[in-house]
């Protein structure tokens, strides 16, 4: 396009070498902002939430598992993970491994949206990272940190990239079938919930004393992390359309509507059945609402978001408070933060409800087609019930695929890792917690920090001093 065609545009919108014609500056700015909001959900959001929600002796280890995963995923992502998830097709479920570091590649247009690959690589990274951080929630309070260091890159490579390519890549098998997963109900939440539960089975449970009593060491800190998680979800779902559009606005509004409804529903159920308005329960209801709306955020109407909130605040509550306590298998597996209920069940529920409530017009705005995506209720109204049943069938097919993928791959990874290092810390180290795992504690006794400052943390000989370990009891009742 010749410069003459840009007559009348303000100088800040004129294309130049750093802002080519194909790039929309507004979309690029929003996508970078949305990605950063999602990143803040992890660092420091989940770091703070985990650090505050666990027993005092596990605060450092829990927070550090999250911090390590965030950094490890980024290096693997630009090294090979992004191209395996969104690059050239290797086969219908997987992309070819390649680096995402070259200037030429990073400055090319992304596979969707009007911004460069550099922006898309960053945006998709924060989604990949938070998935691993959510898996960590099921393993807090006993996993060997060295095993976690191996687990993160292996699971990213052999599980996450499969799910992301098959469901989100335009060349993926489920994407071509027409599955609805607006922003990660399948790829992130169902995957992390199933993988976390599976890994928890292989790692084994916490000590009996920890399982029986595991109080949050700082509820206010936990709430601060939960608040960052909730507000950061504006970027999580608002970035789904890859543009500053009405669909992005709707996705953000629906996200908060569903979440508030879910929180209140969970709270009411706690009051009715347990006679106590539980703060921890409210946080769980908040999380299930955020998860449930994610696969449908920009393709359902506001009234549907309220209905989804009612479902996400009640069905996972029932599975956690009733089904869990009656199931031998669920009782056997020690899922510390209940990610099976808050992410796997809520994510699957969101996928199913998307198959019921997805509006044809909103699907058109997101997917640019009227023919493939239609919720069952609207299909009946349109007189094309088969289209709706087909959509619901694809949603269920996707759920089955993600469950099978994560049970098998996560199990194989855990089996492989335990041949290298133990998956679980020793009982002796678990009695101690952070001090045994990292030689550090979250909270020093008054005056102790001054006394030990130079010796413990001032040089390479800090391990020579054995700090007194105060054993404490308690449990956060997550399930």
UniProtKB/TrEMBL annotation:
Domain Ammonium transporter AmtB-like, chain residue ranges per copy: 29-443
Keyword Zinc-finger: no
Chain ranges passing through the membrane: 29-51, 58-80, 121-140, 147-168, 183-204, 216-236, 248-272, 279-297, 336-358, 364-382, 394-421
Cited InterPro entries: Ammonium/urea_transptr (IPR029020), Ammonium_transpt (IPR001905), Ammonium_transpt_CS (IPR018047), NH4_transpt_AmtB-like_dom (IPR024041), RhesusRHD (IPR002229)
Keywords on record: Ammonia transport, Membrane, Transmembrane, Transmembrane helix, Transport
Gene Ontology CC annotations of this record: plasma membrane
Compartment list: Cell membrane; Membrane
Source taxon at top rank: Eukaryota
PROSITE patterns (UniProt xref): AMMONIUM_TRANSP
Gene3D superfamilies: Ammonium transporter AmtB like domains (1.10.3430.10)
Family matches, as Pfam families: Ammonium_transp
GO molecular function, one term: ammonium channel activity
Keyword Transport on entry: yes
Membrane topology label: Multi-pass membrane protein
Main location, first listed in the record: membrane
UniProt family annotation: Belongs to the ammonia transporter channel (TC 1.A.11.2) family.
Protein name as annotated: Ammonium transporter
Organism listed in the record: Ziziphus jujuba
Protein encoded by which gene: LOC107421216
């Amino acid at each position: 396009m010749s410069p003459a065609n840009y007559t009348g545009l303000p100088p800040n919108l004129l294309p130049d070498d750093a802002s080519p014609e194909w790039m929309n500056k507004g979309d690029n700015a929003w996508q970078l902002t949305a990605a950063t909001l999602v990143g803040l959900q992890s660092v420091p959001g989940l770091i703070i939430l985990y650090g505050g929600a666990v027993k005092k002796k596990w605060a450092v280890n829990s927070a550090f598992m999250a911090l390590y995963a965030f950094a490890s995923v980024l290096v693997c992502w630009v090294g090979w993970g992004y191209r395996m998830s969104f690059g050239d097709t290797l086969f219908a479920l997987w992309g070819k491994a390649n680096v995402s570091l070259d200037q030429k590649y990073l400055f090319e247009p992304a596979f969707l949206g009007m911004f460069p690959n550099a922006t898309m690589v960053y945006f998709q990274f924060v989604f990949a990272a938070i998935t691993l951080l959510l898996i960590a929630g099921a393993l807090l309070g006993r996993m060997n940190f060295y095993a976690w260091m191996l687990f993160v890159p292996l699971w990213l490579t052999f599980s996450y990239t499969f799910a992301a390519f098959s469901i989100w890549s335009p060349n993926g098998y489920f994407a071509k079938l027409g599955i609805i997963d607006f922003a990660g109900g399948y790829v992130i939440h169902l995957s992390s919930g199933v993988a976390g539960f599976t890994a928890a089975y292989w790692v084994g449970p916490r000590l009996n004393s920890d399982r029986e009593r595991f109080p949050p060491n700082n509820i206010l800190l936990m709430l601060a992390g939960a608040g960052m998680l909730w507000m950061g979800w504006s970027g999580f779902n608002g970035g789904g359309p890859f543009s500053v559009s009405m669909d992005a606005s709707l996705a953000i509004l629906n996200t908060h509507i569903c979440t508030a409804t879910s929180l209140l529903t969970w709270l009411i159920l706690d009051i009715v059945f347990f006679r106590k308005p539980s703060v921890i329960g409210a946080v769980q209801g908040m999380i299930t609402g955020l998860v449930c709306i994610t696969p449908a955020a920009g393709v359902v109407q506001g009234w549907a978001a309220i209905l989804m909130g009612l479902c996400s605040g009640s069905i996972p509550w029932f599975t956690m408070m009733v089904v869990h306590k009656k199931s031998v298998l669920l009782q056997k597996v020690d899922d510390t933060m209940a990610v099976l209920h808050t992410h796997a069940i809520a994510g699957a529920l969101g996928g199913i409800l998307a198959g019921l409530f997805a509006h044809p017009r909103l699907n058109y705005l997101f997917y640019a087609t009227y023919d493939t995506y239609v919720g069952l209720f609207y299909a009946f109204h349109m007189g094309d019930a088969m289209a709706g049943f087909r959509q619901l069938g694809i949603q269920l097919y996707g759920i089955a695929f993600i469950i099978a993928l994560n049970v098998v791959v996560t199990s194989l990874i855990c089996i492989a890792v335990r041949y290298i290092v133990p998956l679980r810390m020793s009982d002796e180290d678990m009695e101690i917690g952070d001090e045994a795992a990292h030689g550090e504690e979250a909270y020093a006794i008054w005056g102790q920090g001054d006394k030990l400052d130079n010796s413990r943390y001032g040089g390479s000989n800090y391990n020579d001093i054995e700090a007194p370990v105060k054993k404490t009891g308690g449990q956060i009742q997550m399930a």
